[in-house]
Amino acid sequence: MSAFDAKSDMEKLSHINALPYKEQAIWFLNAFWSQGPKFGEDAAAREDVWTFHKTSVKLDKANGEAGNELNEFDAHRLIEKCDSALTVQKMREVLKEIDVDFNKMVSLSEFMIYKFGIDWTLLVNAPQGCDMGAINEAQAGLDNANKMMQVAIAAAEKAKDDHVASKLAEERSKEEEVNSAKAAEESKKMEIVLAEAKEQAEGALKELQEQEAAFKKKLDDLEATSTDDSLGIVKRNKAKAELAMAKAEDPMPLRMAKIHQEAAVRKVTKATVKAGAATAAAETAAKHAVEARINSEKAAVEASAAAKAAEAAIPDAEKAFADAEAILEEVKQKNSGSGEGNLWYIDRELEEAKRYLPKSKFAAAQAAAAAAKQQAASPMK
């Protein structure tokens, strides 16, 4: 007799209640596979056990699959979801009734004791013996298939994301190339404006120098005339008067030349600043265009690699599920005695996981991977 067999029925129940929801469900199926609810003959009842398990997991926000019992509020919700015919008052009475171990919590086993109307002492004493080695092998096959499926889904999602990223990177690269071309064109325009401004400044300076030279010559001539003793006094005095007037105020041509020269200098200064800014902007835009092109090419490579990984992962996952099914069928044929609940649960989880195969996520994933590969293989224009 095992240590478990030697325990009292209440201790055994406490042990079962402490198991995770899934293991409680399996224990219940094993116990009543051929007696009581006779789950072996009632597919709908087996599906109910699956639903009760999954509903409990969803309601147990704190523990999820690792949980084993619900508080009064969540147990109330479980009953409400799975037995909507009950009134609020009746549910309160039921909650008190099904808390067999009186800890103010409701385990999945306690809920199913109420739901299927069975004697809980039969549950705790029902045989669970089976070829656990074979069952563990089947479970390992399922776990591997699930793992391979998650790898495949992740690879497919990455292929899809990388494909989108590659397209965005290519569009960004094209935008930066356009921006670079515009900046280069603007820089050329500013260089032309600067060259014109410098040319005008040179012309204005030349005009100023010519006017200054002409004015100086005029002053020198008047100075020479006013001091030339060979000339008459009237002529000398007239030259002195004109010289004084010329020195008192710049003549109109010289004043205009100075104005033109100052304006030209301001224009050159302004054009120099704009040309410098345009050149810097062009250099920055060219740098961004190069970086965007590199990023685009990198994104295309990553998309291609992700597509290949997805293409490889998806059939690997499908094969893992096929292998898991083969192992399960072999274990079913070899299994004798109880433990049918374990096998059914593995089979049910296998079917649940297979819902993610080609009909849904994998089909879209395969399309995304193919598109990513085609995009990556196409030379960017």
TrEMBL record:
The UniProt record lists the keyword RNA-binding: no
Domain of life: Eukaryota
Organism: Triparma laevis f. longispina
Residue spans crossing the bilayer: none
GO molecular function: actin filament binding
Sequence ranges assigned to domain Calcium-regulated actin-bundling protein C-terminal in this UniProt record: 203-288
Key words, A-Z: Coiled coil
Any GO BP: actin crosslink formation
Protein name: Calcium-regulated actin-bundling protein C-terminal domain-containing protein
